[in-house]
Every structure is written in structure tokens, then in C-alpha cells.
Fold these 2 entries.
Entry 1:
Amino acid sequence: MLCRCVPVVALVVGAGACLQPPSIEAPPLPDDALPRVEGLAPIEDEDPAIDAVAYTLSARAADAELVTNAAPVQAWTFNATVPGPLLQARVGDDVTIVFTNELAEPTTIHWHGMRVPNEMDGVVEGEMRAVAPGETFTYHFIAPDAGTFWFHPHVRTNVQIERGLYGMFVVHEREADAPDVDADRAFVVDDISLDDDGDIAPFGVNMMEDMHGRFGNALLTNGSDAVATLSFAPGQVERWRIVNTANARTMILRFPGLSVRQIGADGGLWPQIACSPKEEIELPVGARAELEVRLAEGSTSASLSSVVLALDDNDDVVEIEVPLAEVELDATLETSSRAGHTANPTLALLDDGPATHTLTLSGANVPGGIEFTVNDFAWPEHEDWTVPQGELQIIEVVNRLGMEHPFHLHGQFFQVVSRTGEAVDDTGWRDTTLLRGQQRMRIATRFDNPGMWMIHCHILEHEENGMMSMVMVEPSSGHDM
Ligand SMILES: [Cu+2]
């Protein structure tokens, strides 16, 4: 299968230096420590209470070694690393993040997928302001849902995220609901566009970037193009959390040599009936996948790979599988007897029905570029749309353009209930889902979280060029978050 609606971009594939695999025999954690997540360096929790976490973040310029055998990239970072440090909490924890902007321009932090109070959402609209250079803002909320989330600015997003401002936020389930695995592992997958000098390529200088979004020429996993090799013991089973933080590239992920079951997505783990084996997963920008991963029977080496289109020596378009991580069997290790994802969380499925509102995504050429619209408004212009808190809405999202759009709603989860009139198997709660060119879908949401929430395409160049709107969820006394 070819990537759909993806401009052909030749990819620079790194030399693939092998990193040392993280030790499986990790030292024991203290009783009150958060569970270990491999692949990213966790930030230090400054709050000793067991039901609270406190973190200090700053956005600042720093050199980042993203590409093997190349000079460091002048990046914008959270705490001098790309991705930013791993943030973690347990579901229900009190979360405090003291954030200082050390950049020369305004920024914010948006907690992508987390149903936080409206004033903590990190957007710039109405009374919500950006964090000015030199300013400190304290984000404070209760982590309402377990799952894999991420954080990034919501100001000049195409530039600030591309330069390196993004990170993963894991909210752990209560122990009884957590999968029984040998390791819980994070993969933050990105692509960046580098120029011939290895610097981040200039922005907004070509029409293709405005139209299709910015496609990179280097694939990064956890901030490096190096391919880590992981040693699996016989029977080893891991939980993999994957987030796509690219500006525009839908990641087509494959798992040659692995036996993979998808066990969750944006809104956490799924009930057993919804979990199914996968050989390929399409992960739009902003979305997450949760996987239960084993070596396939008889397999001794395997990989997590991303499918991209590239030009071969004859300038023909070819599909190549770029490994993001390699897995090798180490038969000398003790056989694992872990059971994997065995919990069975409840998931109330919402039914399709007549649409209560329509969002039409479109766009047109305008002098100087392309303007993208939602219901014919280009942000900051937008329609007035108000819904009462707690009311079930069936929203028809219509794509009038030939290109795909990863649709993102802030502050709420939704379920995709149909695509172009057909029932779907998009299981579970989402905050981001892909709408293909010239297609329509219906999503259902209860709008439980009051406030003013952004709705936008997560191709960052589309968002920045107008494809953003908002919904006002009027608080009602009978509904609490
Ligand atoms: Cu779009």
C-alpha cells in the first residue's frame, strides 16, 4: 500500500548507529516512584506527596544532537532536550508545572489530549494569553485520564514544534489496570526538514509546504535518527506508546518480525474485544497508538519501521521501510512469563445519528498564499458555536479538499461513529483522527468539559493558515468535569 496524499519527499536516512539497549534488569524503584518508562529521560518530580507531581520546565534555545555524524542542530527545547523530558503522573494526581519562557518570542504549553480546565489549555484566545519572553506561568490541573499524551506550544506551532518544542506526558493507570509487561517504552516519532548545512530549513518559502504541510527529510525517534537495538528475552512482552509529533507526515508504521496487538490509542487502553493484531498502523500527526509487542513466533530479529516514499537512483518513486528501532532475540536471557494487557476497561460506545452540527474544511488560493477555512472562516475569524455542557453532539466533519486533514478537538474526547456513511471500527476515545481527501465522517462527543475549545487541523501549516475554529461549552450546574 502506498502512503496516501503524501508528496514525494526523499528522506535522508541516518547512518543508524546502534545505541546500547536499556537494561532489562533495572534497579528497583522506591515505593512512591512513578513506573519506569524506557526511551525518554524522565523529569524529576519535585513534590514528595504520592498523589501529586511538580515539574519545572523552561523553553529555551539549545544545541541538539539529532542527526548522526552531523553538527548539532540549533533547536528550541524544553529543558535543553529534544524531545523535552518525559512528564508522568498517575491518573487523578495533582499536577503542577512551573513554566518559564526563555525564548525571544511568546509561547505556551498545550497538553494535547488531556482534559484539563480551560484556562490551563495553553491556547491564546479571549482572556488566555501567551507566556511572554522572560515570564513564568504555572499550569495546574488534575490528570483526569490515564493514557499517552503529549505537550507542545500553541503559538506559531509550525515553527515552534518543528524547532523541537514537544514531549510526551504519560498518565499511568491504577496498578490493577496496567498491563503486565517486561517494559513500558516510549517512541516519540518526528520528521524535521534540514537544509544543506544541517540547520532547520527556512519556513514558508515554498508553496508545497503551505499546501501539504512541511514534510521533513530526517526521521527522528526520541530525538535521534540513530536506530536503537532492543534485546528481547524469550517470551518478552512490552507496552509501546507511540506519538507522531511531525508537522504534517502521517506515519505508516509496520512491524516486520514482531507480533503486535493494538491495545489503545489517544484516550488510553481498550477493552479486550477492541484489541486486535496489527501488521500496519496509520498514525496521523498528533495521534497516539498503544501496542502490546512480542517477537513473532520463530523470529529472532525484527523492527519497528516507518514507510515513506522516496526517489530511487532512476528517479522512480519507491516505498521504503525506514527502521525506527530494531529488536533482537537474546536467547541467553531468562524466559519472560509476563501476561501483557489483560485488564478489560469499560468503553461505552456512542451510536451514529443525525448530525447536530457540521464542520466543513476547505480552502482557497489568496494573494500571497493559501487560506484554509472551517465553515468558510479562516482563523482568527470563526463561527459562533455554543453547546450546553454534557450534551451529546454528533458532528459531521466534511473535507471539501483533496488533501487529508488530521482533525483535532481540544478539551474533550470523541468517538468516530461513521466515515462517509459507513460504520467504522475506529475503536475508543480519540482527540485526533484522520479525515481523507473529499471524505466526510461523523464524530460523537458529550462535551463534558466546559469552556472555549479549539478545533483544528493538526497539519500545522493548515492550522496556522486558518484551519482552526472553536466551540463554547456553556457550563451547567449539573455537570462537573
Ligand atoms: Cu489540514
Entry 2:
Amino acid sequence: MGWANSGTLEHGRSLTEGEGVRFMPGRSLHWGTDELVSLLERVGAAMRRRFGARITVGDLSAEHGGPVIRHRSHQSGRDADVGFFARLVTPRGAGAPTDLNDYVSFDANGRSLDGRYVFDTARNWSLLEEILTDRRVEVERIFISAPLRQRLLTFGREHGASSSLLERAALTLLQPRGVSPHDNHFHVRIGCPTGDHECREGVRARRVIRRRPVRPTAGRHASQHDLARRR
Ligand SMILES: [Zn+2]
């Protein structure tokens, strides 16, 4: 019901951990529309089949939707945060795949800012491929930082992806403006399911509220920064 940033969820379903899906530790919002939850289940099963890997899923929505902490959207059961696939850094380059237990930021070269991980471009591209070629669910947007978006599109182009998939990926992947650049996870938003007439795509325009400027203190700045990074 409503918009991703001003909406609710009716008849939602809860995602569960299983063969193809693990939860990001500390994230407890796992409700979504049946379309979103089943998409994640199918994508997880595919990654399990192809790589013996599980997708790492962070927040979806609350049981009945509505505003939640850490996110502006995630209100109508159509948003899901999905962690990146990564490999450990070894002295000889990228090592074994590893499951990340937090959102880790990666730079344009695919190195984590903390120097411990390499962005697993091949598996992250495969994850995108599974999401974008799903036959039952149309994805509206996938938010990701511009450098990682470019890295993924380049990988797809160099590894034989079809022109229709590349075009689809180029149109769907986007670095959002005005919030965190999403250099530490995919934010997947599906389109409005067929027949959900109260569902609204896009975002509801926010009322502009003029606030007096606040002189930031060290603590306030740190916590806002921390919050922004986690969106
Ligand atoms: Zn998100």
C-alpha cells in the first residue's frame, strides 16, 4: 500500500533463513510482499545451485510496513537490502569467498575500505543476473554506488552478458541522490505487483521542512554519518 517511503504492508510474508538465504546479523525486519520474499528465495536457491553460496539479506520491512529505523523507504514490503559477495584479501590477491557479517564499503577498485576484503564482482554480477532475469517479478530499482555499478556493468560486458541484460542492468542500477551512496550493499526495490491497486511506484515527495542550522558536535556528526552509511 502506498509508496516505498510512505506506505504500509498488508498480507505480508516473512522471509526465513535457509539453504540459499542467510540474514545479516542485527537486522530483524524480514517482512515483504509475497513477490519480494519469493524473489529472494528463488535468487538464493539459484546462488546456492551455482556457487554453493547463500545470499545475505538485511532489512526488508516491518510486519505491517510503515516507518522503520535506519531507512527512509522499506515501508511497503517492496525493498530489501542484500549484502555483497566478497572474498578475503590474501598476500597473493583475492582469496576464498567469505560471508560478511556487516555492511562493508568497497571503493572503485573493488577493495574494501578496511582493506580486508575484495568485491567478488563475478558472484555479485551473477546475483544481479538472477534478480534481473526473474520471470515473475519486475525490479524497479537497484541502488548501488556509481563506481561499483560501473564495475559490474564492465564485468558483464566482458563476460558475454546479452545486450538486453546489460541494458536492463544499466537502467536499473542507480546511485541514489541525497542518501548514502550504497557502496556497502544492494538495495533492491521491486515494482508494484499486478493487481495491487493501492501500490505506488517512485517515491512520495517529502515536504520541505526548514530547520535552523545545527552546529554539529563530534558525537552528533558521528551518529548521523553512521546512520547514513547503513541505509
Ligand atoms: Zn535499503
